[in-house]
Amino acid sequence: MQLSLVAILSAVAVQSTSAFVVMPSGSTTPGLRMSEPATETATEPATDGEISESADAAGLEAVVLPPKDVFDTPQELPGVVSPLGFFDPLGFAEKADGATMRRYREAEVTHGRVGMLAVLGFLAGEYVEGSSFLWNSSISGPAITHLEQVPAPFWILLTIGIGASESERLNAGWVDPKDVKYSQPGLLRVDYTPGDIGFDPFGLRPDEPEALKVMQTKELQNGRLAMIAAAGCLAQELASGKGILENLGVDAHL
After folding, report:
1. Taking a C-beta distance cutoff of 8 angstroms, is the pair 191, 75 a contact?
2. 1: in domain
3. How many domains does the chain have?
4. What CATH number should be reported for the domain holding residue 113?
């Protein structure tokens, strides 16, 4: 019975002394003090392009974030103008990532340029029809019938010209197919600006980003209008069997 009482008193004494801790030898506070609960020091997270003080003290190196891809935010691309703003009624942009948006813009710019050349071809072709020095002035009628009247050598030259220009465009903008995953066909280079194939014989491309964006918007707007105009010319000539100038009542020939 006495042994049990002694054991109980010893346990109580040990438990009571746990409330006191011995200060380290280097401390300036003598004697014993009550133990204090541990507290955590809150550190603010590092913002973009910065390192927290704790990370700096630990000798960690800064992590350089990749540059922002403007095609991840298509609402900021050139060609977004009032009153329509970002016009995407079918929601193509919502389902597209940056790589797909870059390919969409390449297609839009290229088709716009083809549309502008097509409208010019309609007007110029019908202006010189029947009186041109080409092919002994044998090409006549509406512009949509001109291609079927040209001789075979023209088709050979046309094929070579288109092939050469498309080859240059592919080399300038597309990633080599052997380096592309099968799930990313037609992948464009990240550093390639859609439509920028290096053709600027008159040096019109501005150096300032804002001025360049304005010029790109103008090209896109003219290209969009030209695509609609070319489609209208095709439909009108198919429906009436007459040339565009004749449909407009313009008697203009070389």
Report:
1. no
2. no
3. 1
4. 1.10.3460.10
Angle at 178 between CA 176 and CA 183, to 5 degrees: 95
State phi, psi for 77 to the nearest 5 degrees: -75, 160
User: Percent helix, strand, coil in the chain (nearest 5)?
Assistant: 50, 5, 45
Does the residue 65 lie in any domain?
no
The full DSSP string for 6-57 is: HHHHHHHHHHHHTTEEEPPTT-SS-SEEE-----PPP-PPP-TT---HHHHH
Residues 196, 131: Cα–Cα separation, whole Å: 37
Entry pTM? 0.71
Per-residue confidence of the chain (254 residues) as pLDDT tens digits?
A: 444 444 444 444 444 444 444 444 444 444 444 444 444 444 444 444 444 455 455 566 666 665 677 888 889 999 999 999 999 999 999 989 999 999 999 999 999 999 999 999 999 988 888 776 777 778 888 999 988 888 888 899 999 999 999 999 999 999 999 999 988 889 999 999 999 998 999 999 999 999 999 999 999 999 999 999 999 999 999 999 999 988 888 887 77
Q: Determine, yes or no, domain membership for 59.
A: no
The parent domain of residue 159 ranges over: 70-247
User: Residue 244: in which H helix or E strand, if any?
Assistant: helix 244-247
Residues 6+ apart with CB under 8 A from 99: 71, 184, 187, 188
In a domain, 207, yes or no: yes
